[in-house]
Amino acid sequence: MGEERRQFEEIFLPFLDAAYNLARWIVQHDQDAQDIVQEAYLRAFKGFHGFRGGNGRAWLLTIVRNTAYSWIHKHAPDEKLVPYEEEKHAEIISFDQSAREITTEKRKEYLENALVRLPTEYREVIVLYELEGLSYKELALALDIPVGTVMSRLSRGRRRLQQEFTQIRNAEAVNGL
Known about the structure:
Elements: H1 2-12, H2 16-27, H3 30-46, H4 56-74, H5 86-89, H6 99-117, H7 120-131, H8 136-143, H9 147-176
């Protein structure tokens, strides 16, 4: 058992950040994402005997994705509640920040808000490709879809992300006037 655990951890521990990142973008809540990654990691360990080598990151991310969707289905009524996010609501911009830093933070905020507004199938492909650096082939494995579908979702997702970003930025400009 000790040798199997060592092998498992050697292969999959490096991918925990990617696993958390995917779970966080799917469920959009830090604590839930942590719970999902923990559950997915346990599921992966229990199913490690079925792992035949190959792309460990794609294998683990597939389990995280499936666990996240199972969690969403299980907690669907809770999704109607708007959680209090301390880091979001308690954030105070210090007065000594330069205009450039504020502009960069605003763009980041617009981008995060635009990403959250995307349908999940676009959001997950963008997160895994752009933020986690998975290749088209790794994405196809992780999401269990053809490479062509990965490419079209990525293209459509980027287009939608640009539209959402522009809408958010324009809405703030109108409200700020």
